[in-house]
Design goal:
Layout (H helix, E strand, L loop, with lengths): L3 E10 L9 E10 L4 H12 L18 E4 L2 E4 L5 H8 L2 E5 L6 E3 L2 E2 L2 H9 L20 H11 L12 H5 L6 H11 L7 H8 L14 H5 L6 H15 L6 H16 L4 H15 L2 H9 L15 H11 L5
Parallel strand pairs: 1-5
Antiparallel strand pairs: 1-2, 3-4, 3-5, 6-7
Helix pairs in contact: 3-6, 4-6, 6-7, 6-9, 7-9, 10-11, 10-13
The structure holds iron/sulfur cluster (SF4) (2 copies) and FE2/S2 (inorganic) cluster.
């Protein structure tokens, strides 16, 4: 005997060829405990409204085509149990495309920019390729482990369409492409390590434009953890010596130095070093406001944390970079 639940779904409907504005259409369904969100879309289409359009293919979380948003949260529809979503959102849910601005038919969006970002990071191994290899080109298990997580990406776009940096900056490559850049820059068989790092090191489009909000890692259905790959790329650019001196890289340098020196951050020195003395002048108003409220120590008066030697040892053992 199945358990059932009465639920309501308000689904984004829009046809770019004929509609001026989108509308949200209501569908009521009795949903059983096992059903995933893709079952809901299929049942709406097959039982109530054959005009509903959405992408799907494998139904096993492999092809990445069924990415949508439910109550604003990016999901892969065939992986997300509806009852579990109801624990978060209750019995009424809003189903939308990953980016409503890009919809051309209901839940189907134009993903061109997402794919262009992929192409921009040269998503294949570069190096001498045997035309007719006689055996696999194996690598040591520890090298394989370093790329394993990033290799699980199914190109669903959940991270990209949840990323605030990508939403406001058309040039930003975004979390999925950067995770893929890491996948190849870390592969010991690849011969374009430095060139790959230079390509993602460009101000305005690359790794330094991530605002570290963690949204991509939280939303990824395959555990790719794009943010950790972006951090790894930061380190790789320093290790390979291809980083450029700019506000972002100076900020990374002074951040580490400050923690190593004090434990807590020396906020004033962080701004001065990252932006230069002239640049820091722009922040004087905020600095005085923070000083008045006791949120900024006076220059040279940053307290050391009580476990400072432990912090220092941790920083030194964790960092391979010589800034
Ligand atoms: S952590 Fe960076 S890449 Fe990930 S969603 Fe936030 S801004 Fe985008
Ligand atoms: S990194 Fe994760 S969320 Fe982003 S496209 Fe790949 S599988 Fe989807
Ligand atoms: S249909 Fe393939 S991932 Fe959902």
């Amino acid at each position: 005997m199945y358990e059932k639940r009465e639920m309501t779904f308000r689904v984004f409907r829009f046809n770019a060829q004929s509609d001026y504005l989108p509308a949200y259409k209501r569908y009521d369904l009795t949903v059983s405990k096992e059903e995933v969100m893709l079952d809901v879309l299929n049942r709406i289409k097959w039982e109530q409204d054959p005009t509903l359009s959405y992408r799907r293919s494998c139904r096993h979380g492999i092809c990445g085509s069924c990415g949508i948003k439910v109550n604003g949260r990016a999901i892969v529809a065939c992986k997300e149990n509806v009852w579990q979503l109801a624990e978060l959102y209750g019995e009424e849910m809003v189903i939308e495309p990953q980016d409503t601005r890009l919809a051309y038919k209901d839940l189907i969006i134009d993903k061109s920019r997402f794919w262009e970002s992929y192409r921009a990071v040269t998503p294949w191994l570069e190096g001498p390729v045997e035309e007719k290899p006689q055996k696999e080109h194996l690598i040591e298990p520890n090298y394989a482990e370093q790329i394993d997580e990033a290799d699980h990406c199914i190109q669903c776009g959940s991270c990209f369409y949840s990323c605030p940096a990508a939403a406001v900056n058309e040039a930003y490559l975004g979390p999925a492409a950067l995770a893929l850049a890491y996948r190849f820059s870390t592969d010991v068989r690849d011969k374009s390590h430095a060139n790959r790092l230079r390509a993602v090191n460009e101000p305005g489009s690359g790794i330094w434009d991530c605002v570290k909000c963690v949204e991509c890692s939280e939303t990824c259905p395959k555990g790719v953890e794009p943010l950790s790959k972006i951090f790894a790329l930061h380190n790789q650019t320093f290790e390979a010596g291809v980083h450029k001196r700019n506000v972002a890289t100076r900020h990374a340098v002074v951040f580490k130095r400050s923690i190593e020196k004090h434990g807590p951050l020396d906020e004033a020195e962080n701004v001065r070093y990252s932006e230069g003395s002239l640049g820091a002048l722009r922040h004087m108003r905020e600095a005085f406001a923070m000083l008045r409220r006791g949120k900024l120590p006076l220059p040279g008066r940053v307290h050391k944390s009580h476990n400072h030697s432990e912090v220092k040892t941790l920083i030194q053992s964790a960092s391979k970079n010589k800034f």
